[in-house]
Structures are given as structure tokens and as C-alpha cells.
TrEMBL record:
Sequence ranges assigned to domain GHMP kinase C-terminal in this UniProt record: 235-302
Assembly description: Homodimer.
GO cellular component: cytosol
UniProt: ATP binding residues: 112-122
Native organism taxonomy: Archaea, Methanobacteriati, Methanobacteriota, Stenosarchaea group, Halobacteria
Protein name (Swiss-Prot/TrEMBL): Mevalonate kinase
One Pfam family matching this protein: GHMP_kinases_C
Active site as annotated: 164
Gene: mvk
């Protein structure tokens, strides 16, 4: 039996624009997906991923229970999750040159699926690592990142950057620009995450931005403006200037809204965070529903989000510095 885990991430800046070669800064967070792989004596593959949608997702700040929206488990999101897991298992079996080998695979995750916290990348990264090790193949984190990217790319119909998978495999803060990925120095920023209980379909949202960008010059310029903003953000990160990082996050959210990937619930959480005094707030990931990330070292933002009807969960997220990790 081999067990591996890998972290999720938030985007400090740059999602969507990264798909067109602009830079992005994703940061791994200490919430993980875990995959256990055990070789079988026959050639069947059985995946156990019960309650993947919310399994282990703990509530740290919550407002009055009556105000909370009910989470419906969306079958299409679960199906999509299974495609990532299947992709990871197939890739690792091919790499180990045992494409027909049978496996029992169990997946658990602290990360809600399709909500902007990089759950699919974390599952794919942990899945490739655990399955490959179970089949006698050790991969370093960059190799895992590379293969995980190929799985995401395929499941998302060719619409994926290297950002999520690189960040999950290596941990820490990363700068991703085209095919170039590097880990960069970052202070442990006071991330607060708000989650609306919903999901976005990354493939569809990325395709929507692509269509807008092809139709309107303003959308193409918006993508380039996000790239300029990320370059400014890198200087602010270098200087540890949290106020400037927050200002740039606010602008980044506005630019993502202009590209049509925000949602009423995400805007409501972003405004609740800003009104509570957060240094800045933006959606994270592909948008459409899911999570926002804010910067606030005080308890004001988590508390305010806990009382915001559109917010189902709010929690602090520490920077993860480890990336993919062996758990057996
Ligand atoms: C999704 O977490 C981030 C996007 O930029 C897509 C990608 O980078 O693959 C929207």
C-alpha cells in the first residue's frame, strides 16, 4: 500500500490570464487531498471516493446555522472528479509500464471539488505519486507536476495551465508563466478563505474567457492587464508590502469580473471581506462559484464572512511549504 497527499492552493493573482502565457502567483495551502493505492491480484481498478465533495472539510468560523445555504452534492462535479482520478491512475500505470495492473484506490480530500482551491490538481498529484510508488516507481516532485499537468490538460479539453499542478506538487508560492514554473519566496500571508458551497466548471469558464477574448479587444487587453498587475504584485511580494498586495487583489477581482467569471455569491463575499477591513479580496481559481481569498491578520474578516448569508464556510489558510508528501 502507498499513501500520498498533496495540498490545494489559492491564487494570489493571475488565474485565467495564465492560460494565455501571462504570469500567475498561486500559493499552496495546508489543506490536502490524500490518495491510498493498493495493488490487487486481478486486473480491476476500484476507486473509493465517497463524499469527495466535502469530506473532512472542517468548519472553523460559522454564523447562525439557519442562514446557511444547503449544499447539494452535484453529480456532474463528482463525475468530473472521477475523471481526474482515473486520469491519474492511468498515467501512473503507463509510467510504471504496467497498464493492465489492478488497484484499489481510496481518495479523501479536505478540499471541496471545483471550488477554486485546486482540489483536482491535488487529487491528480497525490494519485500519480501514490499509484506510481505502489507500482515501484519513485518520481520527484517536478516529474509528478509535469505528469499531473498532462492529466489536467486532457480532462479540461486542452484548457489548463501548469499553475495548479506545479504548486500542488512543489508547495509554497510559485510564479508560473507559460511553461516556466518556479517556487518563489513569500511571507506566510494572512489568507482567509470564504466558500459559498458551490462550484464552477473550469473547462467551461476557461472556454468562456477564450470566446470573449476572441470577440472583443477589451477582453484581450483585460487579460494583458492582469499580467501587468501580476508583475506589480511580484514586487509587492518581494517587499512584503501586504497593503499593496491587497490593493492589487481588489483590482484583480475587478478584472476577472470584467471577463465574466465572478458570481453574485463571490462578489458578496469579496465585499463582506472588504467591509470588514481586509487588505484585499478576490475570487480564487476559475470562478463561477466556490471560493474567495482575502488578506486579513485580524479575526474581523473570518467573523464577517461567517455572518454573510452567501458564505457557507470561512477559514484561515496557512501557506504549505511541502507539496506532495509520502504518508505511508
Ligand atoms: C483554475 O484553477 C485556474 C485557471 O487559470 C485554469 C488553469 O490555469 O488551468 C482558470
Amino acid at each position: 500500500m502507498a499513501v500520498s497527499s498533496a495540498p490545494g492552493k489559492v491564487y494570489l493573482f493571475g488565474e485565467h490570464a495564465v492560460v494565455y502565457g501571462e504570469p500567475a502567483v498561486p500559493c499552496a495551502i495546508e489543506r490536502r487531498a490524500r490518495v491510498e493505492a493498493t495493488q490487487r491480484s486481478d486486473s480491476r481498478v476500484r476507486v473509493h471516493a465517497q463524499d469527495l465533495y466535502l469530506n473532512g472539510f472542517s468548519v472553523e468560523y460559522a454564523g447562525p446555522a439557519d442562514d446557511r445555504p444547503t449544499v447539494a452534492t452535484d453529480q456532474s462535479v463528482l463525475d468530473l472528479g472521477m475523471r481526474y482520478i482515473d486520469g491519474a491512475i492511468d498515467r501512473a500505470r503507463d509510467l510504471a509500464d504496467q497498464p493492465e495492473v489492478g488497484l484499489d484506490v481510496t481518495v479523501e480530500s479536505d478540499l471541496p471539488l471545483g471550488a477554486g482551491l485546486g482540489s483536482s490538481a491535488a487529487v491528480v498529484v497525490a494519485g500519480i505519486d501514490a499509484t506510481a510508488r505502489e507500482l515501484g516507481l519513485e518520481l520527484d516532485s517536478e516529474e509528478v507536476a509535469n505528469h499531473a499537468y498532462k492529466v489536467e490538460h486532457e480532462v479540461q479539453n486542452g484548457e489548463a495551465s501548469r499553475a495548479d499542478t506545479f504548486c500542488s506538487a512543489t508547495g509554497g508560492a510559485a510564479k508560473v508563466e507559460g511553461d516556466s514554473c518556479e517556487t518563489i519566496d513569500a511571507p506566510n500571508l494572512p489568507f482567509v478563505v470564504g466558500y459559498d458551497g458551490g462550484t464552477g466548471n473550469t473547462g467551461e469558464l476557461v472556454a468562456g474567457v477564450r470566446a470573449l477574448r476572441e470577440e472583443y479587444d477589451f477582453a484581450a487587453s483585460t487579460v494583458e492587464s492582469i499580467g501587468d498587475l501580476v508583475r506589480r504584485g511580484e514586487h509587492a511580494l518581494d517587499a512584503g508590502d501586504v497593503d499593496e498586495l491587497g490593493r492589487l487583489m481588489d483590482v484583480n477581482h475587478g478584472l476577472l469580473s470584467a471577463l465574466g467569471v465572478s458570481a453574485r455569491s463571490l462578489d458578496a463575499m469579496v465585499w463582506a471581506a472588504r467591509e470588514a477591513g481586509a487588505r484585499g479580496a478576490k475570487l480564487t481559481g476559475s470562478g463561477g462559484g466556490g471560493c474567495i481569498v482575502a488578506l486579513d491578520e485580524t479575526e474581523d474578516t473570518p467573523t464577517a464572512l461567517g455572518y454573510t448569508p452567501e458564505c457557507e464556510r470561512a477559514f484561515r489558510a496557512e501557506l504549505d511549504t511541502e507539496g506532495v508528501r509520502r504518508e505511508d
